[in-house]
Design a protein that fits this description.
Blueprint (H helix, E strand, L loop, with lengths): L3 H46 L22 H24 L5 H23 L11 H25 L4 H27 L10 H20 L2 H5 L2 H9 L8 H37 L3 E8 L2 E8 L10 E5 L6 H8 L1 H8 L2 E5 L23 H15 L7 E6 L1 H12 L6 E5 L21 E7 L10 E2 L3 E2 L2 H11 L3 E9 L2 E7 L5 E7 L23 H10 L8
Parallel strand pairs: 3-4, 3-5, 5-6, 6-7, 7-12
Antiparallel strand pairs: 1-2, 2-4, 8-9, 10-11, 11-12
Length: 556
């Protein structure tokens, strides 16, 4: 009788204190976790609002995080996220079995590290104009993508049977993060992003914020069940059992690994199908990445040299479209195949930000202060004429979309050096949308212009889309005048394409290939016996053959 009372009092005493302190901790942790999605949504909204995304976020995700460094609001928001994430993990550690508290603490540490990396993404831009890339920002994004799914997996294992639904949710969200990151990075990389991992950052953070909200609700609802479990928790603390991963955690971990491998395999298969040839060319050294400083800005190009190079090879410079890259243009244009066939050099330079400072560029569209694209291409020609014995009478430029618009500009600005140009789905207009652009030819330049009638991005009839475009007929009329074309043109029909040719001064030629039903694309052959659409032909072959037939014309 007398011995039972002290025992009851000893058991009763912690029951009145431990549940209360645990309940307060759980409520605080749950409240902190619920803050996370709110802060993330506010931060993401501010970032999107100030990003000036223009055409594309996929191929230039660095625009989302800005080039002028972190302002006070993202730093404050990220610090709050750190606190919320840490509270969530610590709150989980309060209620888990003793042998799994270390996993919860490890999850808290990883979440805190991930938040620190997020600060680095905001605080370390490449330069105010974002013409380059930041190694710190890129590494921080990779670290964030890797750490968050690991942290969620550890948290789910730590929670275990006490919250099996939440444990499974943690594994599911970790899988979703991995899949989202794989596909975002793959899509952004194939679209020409300098640092494609940045595209995955907001999605990874958003999924983590959603997970924190669910865990927060769960933690807030735990205090009442916890009061009846104090004895079990104390007993576990005195005699810890051998550490074992609870069943939901083990299954979730295996599922995460299986889905991760599947995602990696499918992503790799898609990359190999579309980009395998260019990747192999870079691995075996036929394609090299070269850098040159022009106007104080480092400019890069991909240079493809075939196995057998001609004694005095021609040079074809292939310009990517808006928000593209040299890599994307190398894989999309298939011009490496033509370089192999002719023994020529193919160069795929990279524009800055959204592309090129072409005809029609304005301070709010396409203009890049401090970056001199004409000087860059001229310097690239100088280098390759010196290092690769390029024939100065066989230097050519072609390009797609904004790259085609830059091709027209280079045809004017470098007419003394270029033998021919071949713009595909481009335009030549000033800021008002007319073809009255400054152009004085030092010698005739042969032109092959390819355009589709169904092009809605740069309409063949002209008009305003995102900027004013001049009618294609006006562009051709200007070049007929500049190249002093005479006589009646010849006309040839090839499937859906109609090509009109004018003979011009110095042996130059002006050709216009109109593709009936053609879209805003670089035409590629499907290999089908019957073409499947109007753009089912090999534009690179057509352009290469035109270039072969047109060395630099005599000065007029």
């Amino acid at each position: 009788m007398f011995e039972s009372k002290p025992i009851e009092s000893k058991l009763t005493e912690p029951k009145s204190k431990e549940p209360n302190s645990s309940a307060i901790g759980l409520l605080a942790a749950g409240a902190g976790a619920l803050l996370l999605p709110l802060v993330w949504a506010a931060t993401a909204g501010l970032e999107f609002g100030r990003a000036h995304l223009s055409h594309s976020l996929i191929s230039r995700p660095e625009r989302l995080f800005g080039g002028e460094g972190a302002a006070w609001w993202p730093i404050l928001a990220i610090l709050v996220c750190v606190a919320a994430a840490a509270l969530t993990a610590v709150g989980g550690a309060i209620v888990v079995r003793a042998e799994h508290r270390r996993l919860a603490i490890a999850a808290a540490v990883l979440l805190a590290l991930a938040a620190g990396l997020r600060v680095a993404i905001a605080a370390f831009p490449p330069d105010p104009a974002m013409y380059g890339e930041s190694s710190i920002r890129g590494a921080a994004a990779i670290g964030l993508i890797v750490l968050l799914p690991i942290a969620l997996t550890l948290a789910g294992i730590a929670i275990g049977r006490r919250g099996s639904a939440v444990a499974w949710l943690s594994g599911a969200v970790a899988i979703a993060i991995l899949w989202q990151a794989l596909w975002a990075v793959t899509l952004s990389w194939r679209s020409g992003a300098l640092q494609p991992q940045l595209l995955a950052v907001e999605g990874v953070e958003g999924l983590t914020a959603a997970w924190a909200a669910v865990v927060g609700v769960w933690l807030i609802g735990l205090p009442r069940p916890l009061a009846s479990d104090v004895g079990r928790l104390r007993a576990a603390a005195r005699t810890p059992a051998a550490a074992q991963i609870p069943r939901p955690g083990r299954k979730a971990a295996l599922l995460l690994a299986a889905v991760g491998v599947l995602g990696a395999v499918t992503s790799s298969a898609a990359i190999v199908r579309s980009d395998g040839a260019a990747i192999v060319a870079q691995l075996n050294g036929r394609t090299t990445v070269q850098s040159v400083s022009v106007a104080g800005i480092d400019r890069t190009s991909r240079i493809y040299r075939p196995t057998q190079v001609a004694a005095k090879p021609g040079l074809v410079i292939v310009l990517h479209g808006v928000f593209g890259s040299g890599f994307r243009m190398e894989t999309d244009s298939n011009f490496d195949v033509q370089a192999d066939r002719l023994g020529w050099i193919a160069a795929y330079p990279d524009g800055v930000l959204d592309g090129w400072d072409a005809f029609g560029s304005t301070p709010s569209w396409g203009s890049h202060p401090g970056a001199d694209d004409v000087a860059f291409i001229s310097t690239l020609i100088d280098r390759l004429e010196s290092t690769d014995r390029v024939d100065p009478n066989r230097v050519y430029v072609t390009g797609l979309s904004r790259g085609a618009m830059m091709t027209y500009r280079l045809g004017c600005a470098l007419s003394g050096r270029l033998a021919a140009i071949a713009p595909v789905a481009g335009n030549m207009a000033n800021a008002s949308g007319t073809a009255d652009v400054p152009c004085t030819l030092h010698s005739p330049v042969s032109v092959l212009a390819i355009h589709g009638t169904a092009d809605g991005t740069i309409p063949i009839a002209g008009g305003f889309v995102d900027i004013p475009f001049s009618p294609m007929a006006d562009v051709i009329a200007k070049w007929r005048t500049w190249n002093a074309c005479v006589g009646s043109p010849s006309v040839a029909v090839d499937g859906a394409s109609t090509t009109t040719n004018w003979q011009c001064a110095g042996g130059s030629t002006l050709s216009q290939r109109i593709v009936a039903g053609g879209w805003h694309t670089w035409p590629r052959s499907s290999g089908a016996v019957t073409p499947i659409n109007a753009d089912d032909f090999e534009a690179a072959r057509v352009i290469a053959d035109f270039f072969v037939a047109h060395p630099r014309a005599a000065r007029s």
